[in-house]
Amino acid sequence: MKIMTMFILLSFAFVFAFAQDDEKSNEIRTLSGNKSLGFYGAATIGYSQMEAKDALVIGGRAGLIFNHSTALGLAGYGFFNNLDGYNLPVGGEGWYSLAGGYGGIFIEPILGATKPVHVSFPVLVGMGGVGLVRNVGPGTWEDPWDIEIPENDFFFVLEPAVDLEFNLTSFFRMAATLSYRFTSNVELIGKTPDVLQGWNFGLTFKFGKF
Length: 210
Fold this sequence. Notes:
The protein is mostly beta strands. Helix content is 10%, strand content 59%. It is elongated.
């Protein structure tokens, strides 16, 4: 909870700092006077850790942009974690990985969108699923694998983020992303309830009408 509180306080500090500058701009920022409606689709590739092991997180989001200042839409991500050496109490020898995905709705305040470099604060709220995946085989790439999920669980997720965004062209933006994934407890044999919680670092590529 301390990490979440510090994250939220930092986000609000950025919001208020940039709001001071926006008040000096001649551009109208209110939704009631909105004459701008944009959209974008984005792909994200990121790095995280789950159970002190490297994890790959990939996914994307798509949404509408209101008045250059707020985006609203849907997002979804998948993850994979190498857990080699872990075996269930029952069953044969196997190589296990933690795999799953999550998604939901997001809201994204955008500050200084018309500037070449600016920030945004996407927050995702949703749910997902995770399972222990067993790969059974001799371990050579040319041999087939028998893949099954011996155990799985569902969870709720809240993921606030900070994007440092660069306007590369009028329709293409790239962002360095830092987020923290909060989840409800998961029940998997041999795993702690908070095994999915942690920081994410990544790159986001946005295409659209901004």
